[in-house]
Amino acid sequence: VIRTRAQLESSVEDGVMEELPSMTVSQRDQFLVLNDVFRIYSDFDASDIATQIFTCCSRVEIQRDKQLDYLMNGLRHLGPSFSSLDANRPWICYWILHSIALLGESVDDELENNTIDFLGRCQGPDGGYGGGPGQLAHLATSYAAVNTLVTLGGDKALSSINRCFLRRMKDPDGGFRVHDMGEMDVRACYLAISIASILNILDDELTRGLGDYILSCQTYEGGIGGEPGSEAHAGNTYCGLATMALITEVDRLNLDSLMNWIVHQQGVERGFQGRTNKLVDGCYTFWQPLVQLNLVALFEDCRRVQPVFDSLNLQRYVILCSMVPEGGFRDKPGKPRDFYHTCYCLSGLSVAQHAWSKDKDTPPLNSDILGSYANHLEHVHLLHNVVMDRYNKAIEFFHREA
Amino acid sequence: MHGRPRKAYKPEEEAASAAKAAKLRALQSQFMSNHHNKIYTKEAVDLSTKLLEINPEAYTAWNYRKLAVEDKLSRIESDPDLIKTILDEELRVVESALSQNFKSYGAWHHRKWVLSKGHSSVGNELQLLNKFQKLDTRNFHAWNYRRFVVELTKRSEQDELKYTDDMIGSDFSNYSAWHNRSVLLSSLLARKADGFLPNKKIPDEYKLVQNAIFTDEDDQSGWFYHLWLLDQTVNVETPLLTSSWPSHGSRISLYAGCSNGSFSKLTTFGSESGYFPLVLNFDQAVGGVSSSTVTIDTELKGNEDLVWEPVSKKNSHVSCVWVARLKYISSEPCFGKEYKVKVKIGNSPGIVSSRGCNFSASYEFVFTAHVHDTVEESSQEGIVSWTDGFDIWDAESKDLNALTTLDRSNAQMDSKWRQEAIAEEIDLFRELPDSKIGKLTLARLLMAKAMISDDAVKGVHYNEILELYKDLMALDSSHYQYYKDVHSVALLRKVTSSTEDLSGHLFRCRNMNNSVCLRLNNLSLSRIASVEKLLFVQMLDLSHNELHSTEGLGGMQLLSCLNLSHNRIRSFSALDSLRHLKQLRVLDVSHNHIGEHSVDTTRYLCSSPLFNSEWTQDEVGRQMPTLVTKYWDAYFVLRDLNLKQLDITGNVIAGDVFSSFVLRVVPKLVWLDGKKLEI
């Protein structure tokens, strides 16, 4: 049995790969990922100081220009391999535009107007956004569309949103369905409440029975599953916690066991896994620490103020293992890049960089950021995952509208 | 959309895939037109099949098919064969979509929808699932669907348990199987299905999980299942009453007038309002405590319709601690008399835990209240000093015994197997000395043992637990804060575990008429615990610790003097729980970090109308909106307190502006930062 990094490395050298078939499938997968990850780490650690200083300019650099090229290209033209995302086109807008915003950049007027027009065509006659023009309104694509428009900002973008729709998705059981006759789960609850909160239309009718539903999805592990009876899952834990925070019922959750679950989800690679005993995946860089930071930042009166994750090593995992040198981010070494992982890896990096910031107006210290200060990303709102100042402007707008 | 492999394309493949995309676009637009024109012909429906087989994520097409099925069903008279044919076609489409992408939410949901109609045979579902679950043993859609099918077909939970046996047997790393096992066993144990008694089954489960853990101690699955087992061994689902103030059999003395922590006896209480708190502490958060679920039998007048309040945040209707205020001074002369108060809990149902379990059995306790006509001499206008003049408390242990007697002992029915199971696990885990998770589990096991064993041996366990957590803090520095917190919990359990331990922390305050003070200072505590054993405390010194907040202190309803100086409190929000302390008169929060950085916690909440404009409606808020906006967190806490003495020096927030603000918000304040205020 391989327990430590040293044992692992020596076993790789000894060529004990033949032993692998006797391991269970997930152990074998875990072993192979560890193998890749630690090889990258040890290459990096082994290079002498001069190389490290040199590589600081390349290996640990976010490469803004390349990231922007990749993202801009994606916005203008999506390859045919994206046809399976046809029902998710507002998501592509969100992943790309939010990534651009995290890098502190904006798009030109033409692209902005095209995006607003396109999303306008995805909006249903009774509000809500579908995956593309003519498609049924869906909470997930509505969330993506609203967050995209908030990210773009400005009266034209914000006033294009029809604020009805959410009420129809409310189930008498307290939760939300993702669309007419669609499935009900914790994800749907978060999407609905996040939208309602940004648009300033959260009320008792939307929140009735919701806390009970979320509570019934928290498992003994401490995390939150997708529906009652399901095992805990990072994405759903984020959704459930953020929902409870937005409806101010968070103290009903068992926060002690939640914390216990979270501290056990950061793997030896220092990335995060999504479920108990699963492989690490770059996108959980966002979900997992976020859950922690929500606990921390929202509830000063809860006792823990220090983040309990290893923020620098997390940045190391994302930059060395998830970042693709040509631009974009991926799940783990050996996987191709995509916009989804780019969006959540960048969001996660931002969260890790700002984890120790004293307040929202204080930029992170040099020592909180892996690599040069050029890696510094914009601060995100932990409950909605939009860049903070765009969020503030949207809130101002929708309070004026009310 | 997540987790699917997406290949990089070569040029020739690119061309082929471009053609495919063009074809898909054509399909899509044709489908949309059918959908919007409500065309449900065979041809049109077949087109949606094609679309879904290529792209199962096209949820609009799944909905279109539901409408098409409803349409067809409405046209045929109830011919079971025809209905079955129509629905079987749907199942076929789902199956083929799932083989394209078995993480498609829409496809799984469509299948549930079809089966819920009740006309199709469900016999094949488990076979289909077995096929999918072999390909991806952790697919949570499949596991969710499996639970759905089991419920629909009323398949026995025992059979399902066997299925998890097989799955775990072939791959013990499969946490999904372990998880489902915990779900099934919880249900079987709860309804006491034949042979499923905790004292029989839980020990077997420990053996099963030991195998997994000792085969590979780096594999998380077993550890998490072990955590569940420990939970089952120690915790009882039904909520229990853990303690109360006044406690069963105690005799309390009630005086008219202020209690400034200035009573020499632990059982003495006074209040200018003429009310004393009756506190109930449960082992978990419950709702539904009211004058109908808790009845009071007493001759004390004016307590017919008691109002029970949860000690929790706004909008929350559940709490571990509930309090009612009983009147002991009424217009009728009642001084110098003794009154028996009988409290019955849970006679009528209604007390329910937040997990939905009912309060176990009705419970009754009695105490005696002696109402005095004299106002005990008190130093209420004098300043309370924490710096010196503390004498060791000359233990009148009997007095203390009555206070800390727990009412829980009678509730643990069959603790023998629990103790044995835990003892066995402890022996086993002592053999895994170097692993972090092994140490953590050992510490938890020891904590569990301490909870259910005799007082005499507790101290030993706690010392071992504290050592283990210290080791973990050194070994695993990235989770330091987590271990620090559990270390604090263990330390406070140790301190409150016996009369001897507790009395070592009790002092008499010479300058304050020898009133009793609990001193838990200088213990590097980072959080508060064991409050249920400290309900009697009126004067508490928590100075020189590492506390970030006062969470938990809200339960100590008798607290009138509290010292929190030299801790790590960063804002007034962290003192929120003090709002529940109606008796609190003296508060020292000097030398903390309040105001060092203005973490604006409302920035997340102000978008919610639930929180809007609360302060614009009240008097002070209208008179000085700028200061209230600037110090909103202090405002929310201070306006609910009745402080006579406040110490705030040594915080960034302290200064002339803040002082003037405090004077407006706390008009009854007499001492601020050691100086008497001129009134």
Automatic annotation (TrEMBL), chain A:
The record's annotation in InterPro entries points to: FTB, PGGT1B-like, Prenyltrans, Terpenoid_cyclase/PrenylTrfase
Look up keyword Disulfide bond and say if it applies.
no
Q: Which domain of life is it from?
A: Eukaryota
> Which part of the chain is the Prenyltransferase alpha-alpha toroid domain?
63-385
Co-factor binding comment: Binds 1 zinc ion per subunit.
The reactions it catalyses are: L-cysteinyl-[protein] + (2E,6E)-farnesyl diphosphate = S-(2E,6E)-farnesyl-L-cysteinyl-[protein] + diphosphate
Checking SUPFAM superfamilies in the record gives: Terpenoid cyclases/Protein prenyltransferases
What task does this protein carry out?
Catalyzes the transfer of a farnesyl moiety from farnesyl diphosphate to a cysteine at the fourth position from the C-terminus of several proteins. The beta subunit is responsible for peptide-binding.
Record PANTHER family: GERANYLGERANYL TRANSFERASE TYPE BETA SUBUNIT (PTHR11774), PROTEIN FARNESYLTRANSFERASE (PTHR11774:SF14)
* Family to which the UniProt record says this protein belongs: Belongs to the protein prenyltransferase subunit beta family.
What this protein is called in its record is Protein farnesyltransferase subunit beta
**Organism of provenance:** Brassica napus
Give the source lineage, highest ranks first. Eukaryota, Viridiplantae, Streptophyta, Embryophyta, Tracheophyta
From TrEMBL, chain B:
* SUPFAM superfamilies from the UniProt entry: L domain-like, Protein prenylyltransferase
The record's listing under InterPro entries reads: Leu-rich_rpt, LRR_dom_sf, Prenyl_trans_a
What organism is recorded for this protein?
Brassica napus (Rape)
EC numbers: 2.5.1.60
A Pfam family = PPTA
Task: Give the EC class as a word.
Answer: transferase
Keywords from the UniProt entry: Prenyltransferase, Repeat, Transferase
Q: Which reaction does it catalyse?
A: geranylgeranyl diphosphate + L-cysteinyl-[protein] = S-geranylgeranyl-L-cysteinyl-[protein] + diphosphate
Q: What's the family?
A: Belongs to the protein prenyltransferase subunit alpha family.
Taxonomy of the source species: Eukaryota, Viridiplantae, Streptophyta, Embryophyta, Tracheophyta
Name the job this protein performs.
Catalyzes the transfer of a geranyl-geranyl moiety from geranyl-geranyl pyrophosphate to cysteines occuring in specific C-terminal amino acid sequences.
Residue intervals passing through the bilayer: none
Q: What is this protein called?
A: Geranylgeranyl transferase type-2 subunit alpha
